[in-house]
Amino acid sequence: MARRTALGLASPIFPQAPVIILTHGTPGNRVSMISRASFLYKHGFNVLLFDFQSYGRSQGAFSTLGMVESEDVLAAIAYLRGLPNTMYSKIGVLGLSMGATAAVLAASRSDDIAALVAESCPVDATRVTSDVPDEEARTADQELVEEVYGVDITQARPIDVVNKLAGHTAIFFINGDADSVTPLDGMQALYQAASQPKQYWVVPGAGHAQAFDSDTAGYISHVNAFFDAYLLKS
């Protein structure tokens, strides 16, 4: 990665086992994904956690709502492809909120992601009011990110690219029905726009990015089954 980025790869369980990359939301960092990483590791997957640019111990100026962060996901894949024990491993991603945006954007540009869990994924990251409260802020953020990073954050729209996963990435949407940040109708729109193979799970009573805490056993069961289906098949 061009910036210094904090990475953490659990010791491979066995060479060439599938690897799950976990991509955190905002606010957050790789530590906020440890509970999810733990059950995936116990299930038999290798796991990779890292801090997005400008989060945790990674360098960077500020969040770009998934745009530059998607480059971090692609760099994490390149890192795995450079390691002897994972260079041929199947790769999955579990992305949370902004991390889901980054993962969908990355998967639209890479054939290396075989399976993707998009949890509390926005339709349009620049319309999430907790991050971008109004049109004035949206314009200001757009101009600042363009000046510093040379990217247009108004392209951080998973709804526009999720169909590009067709043929190489299975996607699993997870959303709480009490999520006021990325509401359920947004997940339904993303699901309709996505191509097969796809699935979704609505978690009763769960708020934004709270599916794991609201139904831990159900979350573990659903996510393990999804990754088993698309990362362990020949």
UniProtKB/TrEMBL annotation:
Keywords: Hydrolase. GO terms for biological process: proteolysis. The keyword Hydrolase applies. Residues 64-231 form the Peptidase S9 prolyl oligopeptidase catalytic domain. InterPro entries: AB_hydrolase_fold, DNA-binding_regulatory, Peptidase_S9_cat. It comes from the Bacteria. This is Alpha/beta fold hydrolase. It holds the Pfam family Peptidase_S9. It comes from Ktedonosporobacter rubrisoli.
